[in-house]
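debug: dumping io for the single-chain case to check the tokenizer round-trip. Nothing else runs in this session.
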Amino acid sequence: RKKSNCLGYVKSIDLYEAGTECRIRTLEGDVFVNCGEDIYIMIGPVGEVYPITAESFAQRYDVSDMKYDKVFDYAPSAIKMGDNTTISLLPYARSCISKPGAAIWAKQVDIHTKVFNRWNYETYMNAKIGDWLCYSTFDDKDVYVVQKEIFGILYEKVE
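debug: decoded output
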């Protein structure tokens, strides 16, 4: 289950107009999203980014009025397809708190694994040995990879 953490998020329409396709560089590979009212981009505890639907966001996070002022070695960004302009996410980021107890199914992978999911229609996420393959209990299409170094920060095991 998810631990309570302060994370960042950006509404994709704060970056680009609805319908604009952009590329998000995640730790596990590039992800393509069409910006819209229902698409958010999360910023994790070590600066990792990933898209999430507004519905999943509401189930997993509470909006916070704390200022989001994290600094990372590599600034999270989004790249507009077509002209390749890059926008830093941090100036648009707001804070949210992960709801403790939000459950997932997870399995640590023991072989290099390629994961295709709703966001990666042209590419895939890479799971290295020791990373975690995760599956949401809220959304049967939400399959993703969490690096082994980050998993323990975000989740705790339950029986």
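debug: round-trip ok. The CA atoms of residues 76 and 89 lie 6 Å apart.
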